[in-house]
Every structure is written in C-alpha cells, then in structure tokens.
C-alpha cells in the first residue's frame, strides 16, 4: 500500500470533533501562528511571516470532515461568507474526501484553495507531518491507546468468553451433525 493511501485511511480514523484541531496543528507545524476565529478552532486564521522586512500571509482555514460524501459548492460559499472583509489573503477549505465540480470551480478565484483528501495526504507527506497525524489516530494517541488497552480490549475478551460456549454449542458444525442424527 502506498504511503498516501495509508495516510488517507488514517485521516478517517480521526474523530470528527478532532479534525479541526488536527488541521490547526498541521498549519502550526508549517510555521503558522493560529488565531481561533470562533473559539472552537472550527474555522481559524493562520498567520505566517511578517516583521520588519516582509509582510505576513493570513489564511482563513475551514476544515470540513466528511466521510462518505463530497463537499459541495454551498459548503465552500459559506466559508467565503466568513471572510469578514479583513486582512485575509487566502481562504483554504480542507476535507478528508472530495469536492464536487461546483466546489472545485470556486478554486478559480485567486484567493481560494481547496484541498481534498489526497492533496491533504500529500501535504502531510511533503511537510513531514506524520507525527502530527499520529497524535489524532487511535494507534498514535497515548490516551486512545490506553483506552484501547484498558477498556476496549477487556470488553472484547469478556464478549469472547461469554460468546464462546454459544458458538461451540450452536455453531455451524454442530448444526450439521444435529441434522445428520
């Protein structure tokens, strides 16, 4: 399996509510300073550069976690409405899946960039941000790993112990022998 495909699968392992935090951390990893636009990091401003000799770049980032359907033009238009008329240089819409053709056409505007799941995976690879991603996947998070070890695994073992006698008594092999007799 190609590295990009592995990363795409991992993107779908991120909890829906944590996707915005992941994208925020990814932009921070790229050297941006993050300003929470709405206090929840669902939409946030990312500022890079600035100082005495050069101006800064300000991006408005909108992460849209989607599993099973595409981001459409109305989703992108809602983000364009958030521009507030302030110092935003670029609007970036990020998703885990794909964009409809109408949403992709919004990218023809100079200040709009849309990143689908494959492009997001490429960005993670190009920026060497696999570690950022691993903090949000079940296999990468220490807390999630501990939950898996001390909660999920014992529940699976208990279910197996409870279900085993029923499988032995009423399993498909025993059904065939009962009909033969």
From TrEMBL:
GO terms for molecular function: DNA binding; endonuclease activity. The keyword Nucleotide-binding does not apply. Residues 13-124 form the Restriction endonuclease type IV Mrr domain. Gene3D superfamilies: 3.40.1350.10. Keywords: Endonuclease, Hydrolase, Membrane, Nuclease, Transmembrane, Transmembrane helix. Pfam families: Mrr_cat. The chain crosses the membrane at residues 145-166. InterPro entries: Restrct_endonuc_IV_Mrr, tRNA_endonuc-like_dom_sf. GO terms for biological process: DNA restriction-modification system. This is Restriction endonuclease.
């Amino acid at each position: 399996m190609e590295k990009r495909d592995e990363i795409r699968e991992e993107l779908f392992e991120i909890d829906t509510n944590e996707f915005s935090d992941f994208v925020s951390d990814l932009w921070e990893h790229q050297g941006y300073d993050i300003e929470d636009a709405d206090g929840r990091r669902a939409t946030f401003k990312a500022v890079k550069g600035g100082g005495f000799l050069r101006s800064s770049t300000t991006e408005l980032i909108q992460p849209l976690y989607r599993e099973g359907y595409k981001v459409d033009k109305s989703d992108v238009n809602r983000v364009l409405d958030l521009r507030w008329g302030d110092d935003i240089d670029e609007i970036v819409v990020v998703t885990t899946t794909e964009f409809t053709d109408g949403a992709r056409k919004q990218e023809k505007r100079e200040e709009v960039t849309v990143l689908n799941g494959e492009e997001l995976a490429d960005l993670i690879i190009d920026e060497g941000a696999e570690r950022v991603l691993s903090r949000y996947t079940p296999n990468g998070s220490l807390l999630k790993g501990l939950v898996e070890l001390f909660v999920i695994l014992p529940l699976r073992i208990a279910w197996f112990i409870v279900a085993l006698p029923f499988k032995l008594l009423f399993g498909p092999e025993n059904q065939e022998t009962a009909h033969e007799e």
